[in-house]
Design goal:
Blueprint lengths: L3 E5 L4 H12 L3 E6 L11 E4 L5 H8 L4 E4 L6 H6 L1 H22 L3 E7 L1 H4 L17 H20 L2 E7 L1 E3 L9 H11 L3 E4 L5 E2 L1 E3 H14 L3 E5 L5 E2 H12 L6 E4 L14 H7 L7 H21 L7
Length: 314
C-alpha cells in the first residue's frame, strides 16, 4: 500500500504544489492547515486546524508514515514587529507536531527551514557547516526548530531533516509576499514596485517544481540533518527584475526606491552539494524558464479572477 504522508501548511503556495507532485507519484496524503479546505486532488484528506493544537495534530497524524512540516510564520519583517508569534508558531508549533509524531510512531519527518535568516550575513555561498547567527526573530525561531529536530532524532530515533529553502517562486504564489509574486502583481495592477535599497541585493531563486521534487527525494531517502535547497546561483534583485521584464515582454518595470530594511541580509545564496550527494537534488529549471512559466500563470490567474468578478491584483 502507498505511504500516507501528512503535509502541514498544505493549503499554501508550496503545499499545493507539493500535494500535486506527491499525488502524481502515488502517495496517499493528509493535509493539516488553518485555512478553509482548498481544491485538492481526489483522495486527499483534509484536517482544518493549527499545528499548536495537540488534538488537531493527533487527528491529522493518525495513520501517517511520514510528515512534511511546512506550516510556519514566515515573514522576516513581521517577526521583527512581533517576535512572539514567530516563536509560538515556529517553535511551539513544531514541538507539538514532533511530539505527536513520536507518540504516533511516525518515523520520518521533513521540515521547511531557511538558510539566510539562520546564518545571517555569512560568507557566500552558505553551507550547512556554517555557525548560525540569526539577525531576526524569524531566523532564531527556525534555528530553534532545527534544534528540536536534532534532539528528537538523537533521543527518539526520528529520522528528521531540516531543508533550508532559498527564495522559492513559481505558479500558485499569487498571494505571497515574496519578491517575484510582488513584482508580478504590481505589473498586473499597473503599479510601481518598491526597491528597498539599490537593487544590488543578492538571493538564490528556486523554482517551486524543483523544490517539491527535492522534498520528495529527501523524504524517500529518509535523510537526517540539515540540507540547503536552492538553485546554487546568485542573482541580484536588479537582474531578477530584468528577467521578469523580459518574461512579461515589457520595455521596463516601474520602480520606486526606499531605504534598506532592518533585519534583512544583503547577499546570500547557497551551496547545494550536500543535498545533491545525499538524495540527488538537482534543480533543472533555469531562472528564465521559471520566470516565463510563473508570469504566464500569474497573467492567466488574473484574467480568470477578473472574469469571475474578482479584483485582478492579489
Amino acid at each position: 500500500m502507498a505511504e500516507r504522508i501528512l503535509i502541514t501548511g498544505g493549503a499554501g503556495f508550496i503545499g499545493t504544489n507539493l500535494i500535486a507532485h506527491l499525488a502524481a507519484h502515488g502517495y496517499r496524503l493528509t493535509v493539516l492547515d488553518r485555512a478553509p479546505r482548498p481544491a485538492l486532488p481526489q483522495g486527499v484528506a483534509y484536517v482544518r486546524g493549527d499545528v499548536r493544537d495537540p488534538r488537531a495534530v493527533a487527528r491529522a497524524l493518525a495513520g501517517a508514515d511520514a510528515c512534511v512540516h511546512l506550516a510556519a510564520a514566515t515573514r522576516v519583517i513581521d517577526s521583527i514587529a512581533d517576535p512572539a508569534t514567530s516563536f509560538d508558531v515556529n517553535v511551539q508549533g513544531s514541538l507539538t507536531l514532533l511530539d505527536a509524531a513520536r507518540t504516533a510512531g511516525v518515523h520520518r519527518f521533513v521540515a521547511a527551514s531557511t538558510g539566510g535568516a539562520i546564518l545571517g550575513d555569512a560568507p557566500v555561498p552558505v553551507n550547512e557547516a556554517m555557525a548560525p547567527a540569526p539577525i531576526s526573530p524569524y531566523g532564531a525561531s527556525k534555528l530553534a526548530m532545527e534544534g528540536y529536530l536534532s534532539a528528537y532524532a538523537g533521543s527518539y530515533g526520528l529520522r528528521a531533516a531540516a531543508l533550508r529553502f532559498s527564495n522559492v517562486y513559481g505558479p500558485g504564489s499569487r498571494h505571497k509576499g515574496s519578491v517575484v509574486a510582488v513584482v508580478c502583481n504590481a505589473l498586473l495592477a499597473g503599479e510601481p514596485f518598491t526597491i528597498h535599497g539599490d537593487g544590488s541585493q543578492v538571493r538564490d531563486y528556486l523554482y517551486v517544481g524543483d523544490l517539491v521534487a527535492g522534498i520528495r527525494q529527501a523524504l524517500a531517502a529518509g535523510v537526517m540533518g540539515v540540507y540547503q535547497l536552492g538553485s546554487g546561483t546568485p542573482t541580484t534583485l536588479n537582474a531578477l527584475l530584468a528577467g521578469i521584464r523580459d518574461a512579461a515582454g515589457m520595455a521596463s518595470i516601474p520602480v520606486r526606491h526606499a531605504p534598506f530594511r532592518t533585519g534583512e541580509i544583503h547577499t546570500t545564496y547557497c551551496d547545494i552539494a550536500k543535498a545533491h550527494a545525499a538524495f540527488g537534488f538537482t534543480p533543472e529549471t533555469p531562472l528564465t524558464g521559471g520566470l516565463a512559466r510563473t508570469w504566464t500563470w500569474f497573467r492567466t490567474s488574473a484574467a480568470r479572477e477578473a472574469g469571475a468578478g474578482v479584483p485582478a491584483a492579489g
